[in-house]
Amino acid sequence: MNLIVHDLENLTFNKIFNFNDRENYIISDNGSIKSCTGCFGCWIKTPGTCVIKDGYENTGRLFSKADNVLIFSRCYYGGYSPFVKNVLDRSISYLLPFFKIKNNETHHKQRYKNKTRLYVYFYGEQVTQDEMETARNLVRANGINFNVAEYKVVFTDTAEQAGREVAAQWK
Amino acid sequence: MEISIINGSPKPGHSTSGYIIDLIVPRISEGNILEIYNISRGNLQEGQFVKIQNCDVLVLAFPLYVDSIPSHMLRFMAELEERGFASKNTMVYCIINNGFFEGKQNRIATMQVKNWCKRTGLVWGQAIGAGAGEMIPMLKDIPMGHGPNKSIFNVLECFSANIMGKKAGEDIYFSPDWPRWLWKIQASFCVWYPRARANKLTKRDLYAAGK
After folding, report:
1. How close B62 gets to chain A, by Cα (Å)?
2. Measured between CA atoms, how close is A168 to chain B, in angstroms?
């Protein structure tokens, strides 16, 4: 299964990407997402599931089912857009609260045995070199923390260009 | 100087961001007008935005979420960028804390805030990045500058002096002066297991797959 997270209008996304619903699970902005409140309920109250019931509470479990996670996001200051970041903030139940040491840094232990692949497509005109460097560092850090098998970062001026980039590989 | 301090913690009550702000406020109050805004309490009012847009110094304090700026803080910063600032001389300082032990894991969020400064046309001041963020308020009864509070004391002194002088400084990343191996064990036995027990969950339950 491919898990796709994007910040585009659904109509625009469908026009550009044409992913089918059978092999892909798509997370998009329906206007109801709530911010993570830092309560750790997804670790110590309802392990593996966020306690905020707004339709985005199962993101961590969805990560565990995904062979590939594809993210399409406008680049904000060298990171994800607020909606995409909101989805990722709400996905920490994918990990356990406990710590391990990796490359002499502390990281969270894995809740699940799967190893997904992470592909991030940042779009936006006038993304600066500094922002690109920040974004590359960010996705690499996300890759370490989510224990992914591999990751890739692509920058395009428009979402349409991102669509053309992925069409052959992910359609 | 007019100093606007943004508490970007999503927690309405006690938070590490709020605790560090409380430590800094007495160090930067003399001769200055300070306003603290807690963005977890909902949208700011128009008058509050105007004050922030006209401040001399802006201090952004927030926790690290998934290696970067949390989404609610990002929305707030994007709104500030859109609104703009009255003066391009506003200096931006940043206080970030994360749940891992190493303060240096805050460096990517610092890069993001620096990129935001360039977009908004403001002047970068300095970032301090604390590791073991959950532990910091637990050390409140230990005198500043002693034992595990040695590094944070030195960092806050330097950071506050830079704010008072409206000077830029090297970004500083630090952790409590405490063994990492002990912190790692304490996190499980003093934090996660007791909190799970309070919710009538066993240690084993914490490893469950999501439903």
Report:
1. 11
2. 30
